[in-house]
Every structure is written in C-alpha cells, then in structure tokens.
Specification:
The complex is a heterotrimer of chains A (440), B (191) and C (121). Chain A has ten helices and twelve strands. By secondary structure, chain A is an alpha+beta fold. In chain A, a hairpin with a 3-residue loop joins strand 9 and strand 10. Chain B has one domain: Chemotaxis protein chec (3-Layer(aba) Sandwich), CATH 3.40.1550.10. In chain B, a hairpin with a 4-residue loop joins strand 7 and strand 8. The relative contact order of chain C is 0.18. In chain C, helix 2 packs parallel to helix 3. Chain C has a single domain, classed as Response regulator (Rossmann fold). The chains are: A alpha+beta (440), B alpha+beta (191), C alpha/beta (121). The interface between B and C is medium-sized, with 21 and 17 residues.
Amino acid sequence: MSHQVLLQKLASRLPLGICVVDAKYDIVYWNNFFTDRLPHSDITSENPNILAFYPDAENYLRKKINSVFVLNNASFSYWEHRPHVFNFSSSRPITGEETLMYQNIEFFPLDIENGAVKTVCLVVQDVTELASYYQAQKTLSEQLEQEHVVLSALNKKLEAAQNQLLQSEKMAAIGQLAAGVAHEINNPVGFVSSNLQSLQDYSVKLFELMQFYQELMLKVNHPTYQALEMDMLQRQQYEFISTDLPELISESIEGLERVAAIVKSLKSFSYVDNSEWQLADIVDGLENTLKIAASQIKYKAEVHRNYQPGLPKLYCQPMQLNQVFLNLLVNAAQSIEENGDIFIDVSATDSALSIAIRDTGSGIAKNNLGKIFEPFFTTKPVGTGTGLGLSLSYSIVQKHKGEIKVVSTQGEGSSFTICLPFLTAEDYEHEHFIEQPAVK
Amino acid sequence: MNTLLTEEQRDALQELMNISMGQAANALARLIAAKITLSIPKISDVTPQQFMSMLTDDSVWYTRQSFLGTIKGEVVAVLSKEGSDAIACLMDYDLPLNQDSRDELLLELANILAGACLTGFAEQLSLKAKLSMPTMYTPTMQHIEQYRWASTLMMEVKFNVEASHFDSKIVICLEESSVQTLLITLQQLLE
Amino acid sequence: MPIPVTIADDSLLSRKVVRRALPVDWDVEITEACNGKEALAAVNSGKAEVLFLDLTMPELDGFGVLKYLHEHHAKTVVIVISADIQPEAKRLVDSLGAFRFLQKPLQPEQLKQALVELGLI
C-alpha cells in the first residue's frame, strides 16, 4: 500500500470531520465524515462551496475561516457556545434524545506560502456523548442546588418558628402568672368592695341618726347641753367629717371598681389557652386592651374611637389579636411625647374587617419602614424593646390570613391598618403547623 | 529576580517577545480596528506562590491553553472585565452578552493574542509550538499543592485598547524542561 | 570617508541584528544608542548621517526622536525598525518624516533594498 493510499484510507475512517477550503470558501478536500452526512448524495457542483452547503452557518463559518486567513492563526469553536455549527444529526439516531450532533471545531491554516494562508482546514469532532453527559451533570447539579435552596429556606422557617414558639411560650407563662395574680387580687377586691358598700349604707344610717339627735337637742332646748353639743361637734370636726366621709367612701368604691375592671381585663387578656379560635367581638378586645394600656396612654394622648355600628363577630384567636392591638397601641403611645392623639377606626366590608390605629407621634424613618416587621428590629433604647412586638404581630395577622400595612411620615405620625378576612373554622382546618416567618 | 537568565539572555527574550507582541497587537488591531498600546515585556522566573498571587484579581477573567512542540508550556490570558463590552461591540457580538457569548468572546480574544504571541516568538527561534484550544480558567479552585514544578520562566506582555479602556495580558509559562531548550536556542542566536 | 551611522535600540540583540544585516562592503562608522536621548546626542555630534531607529525605548521613545528631528529640519536619514507594526504607528512615523518603516523581525534583504532605494549604497 502506498503512502498516499494509506493516508486516504485513514482519512476516510477517521471519527473526525476534515474539510479543507480555499480563500473563496470552495472545498478543496473533505473526508467521508462530511460526505456521508450530506442530505442528498449527488454532488453535482464541481467546486462545492462550504458556505453554500451549510447556509444556516454561513455567517459564522465565513467569520471564522476569514479570521484564519487574515491572522494566520488557529481558531476554535466550542459546543458550549455553538453546539451545532454543521447540521449533522446525532450519532445516536435511535436510542438517544439528541437530534443534532454536538461539535467542537478547530480551524487552522494548512498551506502557507510566504506568510500568506492559502488554505484553511476544519477539523470537526463529534462530542455529543460528552455534551449530553455534561448537560445531565449540569441538570443534576442544578437540581441539587435548587433542593439546597429549598432546604435552607425550610431551615430558616424552622428557626423562625422555633423563635416564635419560644416567644409564645414566654407569653403563655406570663399570661398564666397574670391570671393567677388577677385571681388572687379578685378575692380581696371582692370583699373590700362589698364591705365598702355596707360601710356606705351604715354611714348614711349613722348620719341620719346624728340628724335625729341634733333635732332632739333643739327640741329639748337646754343651753348647757346645747353648749356641750356645739363644743363636741366642733372638737370632732363633725361638719367636715359629715361632708368628707361620703365622698371618701364613694371615691374608694370608684377606685375599687377600677381595680376590678383592670383585673377583669387582665384575666381575659391573659386567658390561659390563648390559641383558642372562636367568634369574637373585636371592639370588646380593643376596649379590654385599651384598659390594659391605659397607664401608658392616658397622660400623653387622647384616644378617639370610631367604630362602625353593628360590626359582625370575627372567627379568630381573640387573645392573640389583643396582643397585636396592645403592641400597636403601646408603640403609638411611646411615639408620642406629649399631647398627642390616637385614632382607632374599625369598619367592615362583606369580606373583611379593618382596624386602623393612627397616632400623631414621631413617625418611622423611611429607611426603617421596610425593617419594622423583622424580628429583633427595634429603635427603642437597649433594654426597652425586644424587637419582637411587631414581628409577632405580623405573624399573628398572617395566621389569620390577614394583612398588616403601615404608612408613616417622620414627624407626623404612623398609621397601621390590619385587614382580617371573615373566614370560618373550615378555612383554617388544613393549616400547616409551621408558620410563615415573620419577615415581609 | 532572574536567576535563570543572564542579562544578555533576558534582553534577547524581551526583544523577541516585543516583536511577537507587535505582531499580536497588529492582529488584534486589524480585527477590531482600534489602536493597541504596547508596553515593555516582562521576563521573570517565578515560583508557584508567585504564580498563584498573580491569579487573585477578581476584576479580570482568565483563560488558559497549553502548547506542545519543541517547547512546552501553558499560556494564561488575563482579560479585564472593564471594557469587554466595548470590545464585544467591535468584534460584532450582540450586546448584552450572556455567559456563553461572553466566554466565546474571551476565548476568541485570548486565542488570537496568545496565538500571535507564541507563534511569533517560536518562529524567531525556529522552534515549534502548537497551541491547543483555550478554556476559561477559574484559579480560585486551585491549590498550591497541585503544582508540580519549583520554578518556571514567565514571559508577560500587556495590551491596552485605550479607546475601550480594555486591558489584557498574555503570560507564556514554560515547562521547566523547556527552559533549557529555549536557552540553548537563544545562545545560538546570540553567538 | 566612512558614513557615520547610529543604531538606536534599547535591546542589545536588536542592535546586533541590525549590525549583522548591514552589507559587509558598506563603509560605515557605527555608533550605538540605547535610548532616544543617546540617539539625539549622536545626531547632534554628527555621528548619525543615517539613523536606524526603534520606536519603543525608555527615556525618549522613537516618536520623540522623530518629532525633534522633524522640528529641527535635521538632514538625518531615518529608517525606523519597529516591533509595533500597527497601521497607526506606520502612519505616525510617515507623518514625522521617516524615510522608511521596516518591520521587526528585520529581514536583511529588506534592509538592503531600502538602502539601495535611498541611494546609500
């Protein structure tokens, strides 16, 4: 076998496409890899032109081949960037999913005369196997990446849920404590109150008795005894006592009534099973909460109520919502330095209840607005706020499938609006145990 | 520090690189129709540590391609992120570049510069060196332990396309065994 | 009388290459300069009727030398031998009055042809 025949046979059996073109892009030589893959076997043209044969790749081929002619330097084409320069079909036509062959191509100067390139050779390598393997790997690693993202998100949720659980356990403990204290106070308040009622009755009777004696003395009309009586009355400051005593008693009764009211609110607020779902009157909840927060509000702000009459009851966790109201009211009060106003508006549509709490306090800085519902975000001095109030509120509202929105202008005040849909017990039945993280 | 080379050898290598760099710049200038500013080539021998420290810049992309022949080694191209869009535009790429088209552009640029530099350099010394296809290179994934050489000769040239604020650097690194081949050939030229 | 010729290039190898490429029978007295300043000094002391000039050099580059000579209407025949072969560099060199622009690596035949064309040999 001559050397030339050997080379010809070799070239025809190579698993590589070899094509040599001249400066006019006419094909000087191509091996069987190319000719076997021609769409029609009859090559009529004497000088087949590579650009004419592969019109889809015309621009790219021209650019690449031209750069080799001009620069006298090899150039490469990668399957990652240009997978199918030549529209050859896949090496796996029956079993594989790939329909087109993935190719790496090298373009290099072949004949060079006096530094000028005469012909350029293209070597095409079928990398379909490699490409599909690589792509499968890539898909797999993308899947893994995605799963990783989902898992990390879940982890974060779990962490947030745990934090909330801790917080609500703490709240429950405080609630129980408060309920216990309230109960203990309730008894003495009860008997002191009834004793005071009796005292009031008795004092009325005693004064009537005194009146009777004084009138009797007048009838007796004895100067010595009358002088003695006057002296006694003066010494014992009877006139003062007779006006002061009833006042003292009624003031005490009033005070005690207030104590009783606070105890009652405390009891209902810190109701031990605070996660109980029930139909509840939101205005009642607000009023109870206002009593709890009264000490923080009354010296600073006047509360203006605007409740739509005839509001329907809402299926909710009233104690949890009271928490939300308390947070908002206390925040409102704290944002007011003195002589402010707090407006509470409650209204309802057919589908939802809306509670708006607006204050004329200091407002929230614009760059903080996005962060206020984040856990542990606080602008209060260290040790004053936990940074959990609003985040807890947010998650409670979310648990009610509601929304909490804030509008605030620094120096003018803030307005929080809670919108809670009217839902039924069934709507909440399929709830996840894990709650949404309290981050907006 | 150059301990491998005499001053005369260093001067000769620098001049050879200067010439091949001129050819590379001319190739690029013809392709993008813009003036390329050249600087004086740097010839040095480096340790793996020094080589690594060259690869820590995150304002650039790196490519690498190996070459085989009478001298062997690798060419690392360093291409600035700044100005690459302008170059893409000059080379008829559609903006904005996606990752594939950006890689394609960088590999093409690297191949043109490295090809012209290395071919020019080897031809002047009648040496043979054929470049393989370049690939993107992410040096942060490398560890010093994987270098199996103690010292190598590094020839570095910088290209600056002022109009586009684009910078690139071609670093030819010779395999340890090729350094000797190079020095012998160089000596023949100098005599 | 030998013709005073200066070879200005910062590279020793390049100067050597130019020296070797000069026709052996050309009667010249050669001065070497390592940068533009040395080249100008050679011109000013009458050692450079012909100047082979590189472009990228420290101190003062080839463009600077050309500019100076151009401004001072020097009679020196300047043949630029440059590694920077971009069309832009060529244009600039031509506009500054260089007689020839030769590419590195220097081909001795091209140098000889240039010398013949310029009537120097």
